[in-house]
Amino acid sequence: MVWDGMNDRLMSFGETFGSAHWMTLRLLILVMLLVLKIFVLKTDYPHGDGTWPHTQNVIHDVWGHIPAHELRMMCSENAAKLYRHPLPDIVLPLG
Q1: 10-67 pLDDT tens trace
Q2: Closest by alpha carbon to 52, among 63, 40, 42, 61?
Q3: With contact defined as beta carbons under 8 Å apart, do 66 and 77 qualify?
Q4: DSSP states of 16-64 as a string?
Q5: Distance (Å, whole) CA 28 – CA 22
Q6: DSSP element (H, E) containing 62
Q7: In 10 A of CB 36, how many CB atoms?
């Protein structure tokens, strides 16, 4: 959150991003597709200054609206590709 200097409330990420970046719908879709393919979740395990040990709850609470196949990419599949590490036969979330 960023203070906007205009009132007593903090701007949301979306408001901050939207106020600083102008793009067409096509460009926005392209950026979202590219980021989805390269995004890798970082939990900072085992350090307590990240989301660990509550990472699964945080993902559910904050990203619960994201389709399961996209969550799998961000939380496991992208990292597995990057590090050439095999995934188990079943990777959560299902769907």
Answers
A1: 667 666 666 665 556 676 677 777 788 888 888 877 877 788 888 889 888 888 888 8
A2: 42
A3: no
A4: HHHHH----HHHHHHHHHHHHHH------TT-TTSSTTSHHHHHHHHHT
A5: 9
A6: helix 55-63
A7: 14
